[in-house]
Amino acid sequence: MENSKENFIIAIDGEAGTGKSTHAKNLAKKLNITYIDTGAMYRCVTLACLEKGVEPDNYDGVDTVLKDIKIEFKREDGIDKVFLNGSEVTSQIRTPRVDSYVAKFAALKNVREKMTPLQREMGKVQSVIMEGRDIGTVVFPNAQVKIYLDCSEEERAMRRYKQNLEKGINSSYEDVLKNIKERHKLETQREIAPLVKAEDAVLIDTTNYTLEETEDMIMKIIKEKIDV
Ligand code: DC
Description:
Helix content is 50%, strand content 17%. The chain is built from 9 helices and 8 strands. It has helices at 20-31, 38-51, 59-67, 96-106, 109-124, 135-139, 153-167, 173-189, 211-225, and strands at 9-14, 34-37, 71-76, 79-84, 87-88, 128-132, 145-150, 202-205. Strand 3 and strand 4 form a beta hairpin. The longest helix is centred in the C-terminal third of the chain and has 17 residues, at 173-189.
C-alpha cells in the first residue's frame, strides 16, 4: 500500500456515457473526499465564451475570457453546484448549445493551459477523485489510482438515449449514436491531451456490467492501491 496517510488522487478517465460521473460522485461520497468534474470546467469556459459572443476560432477572444475566469465547485444542501464568476451555472452548462460547442473549446491550447494548473491546484490541498479525459495522462500522471472506463458506442448511445427520455428531452437513438461517434473522433484525434488510456491505468469495459458491478470493481482497485 502506498501513501496511506497522505492526500491521494483517484483519476477516472473515459468517454461520455461510460458512467464516469456517476461512479466518481458515488465513490467520493463513500470515501468522503472531494469530487471534481473537469468536464464541467470546460463547459464553464464554453458558456463564458458564448455569453460574450466569442467563438472557438477567436483565439484572442478566448484568451481574454480566460484571463479572469473563476470556476468553483460547492456543495450546498447536499447538492453539487458549479459557479462561474460568482453565478451558479449548474444547469446552464448542460444545454444542447454548450454540448455542441464544448469539444471545440476543450481542444484549444490556451484553454487547456489554463484549466490543467487549476485542476492540479485542487488536488494539492486535498484528496480528490477527478474525472475527465486526460487526468491520468496529463493532469496527474502520478495519481495513486488510475481507472479508464470503456464501453461500446452502441451501449453508450442507448444509455444517453434513455437518460434523455427520463429528462423529457426528445431525441432519436440514431442521432444520439451519431453524436457519440462524432465526439469520439474529436476527443481521440485532437492534438493536445487527446483521450487515451494511460499505460498504467486499469481498463474496465463497462458494456456488460451494471453500475453496481462496475462500482464494486472500482472500489476493489482503490482499496488495493490505497489505505481508505
Ligand atoms: O465529460 P463532459 O461531457 O462533461 O465533458 C465536456 C467536454 O470537455 C467534452 O468535449 C470533453 C472535454 N473534456 C476534456 O477535453 N478534458 C477533460 N479532462 C474533461 C472533459
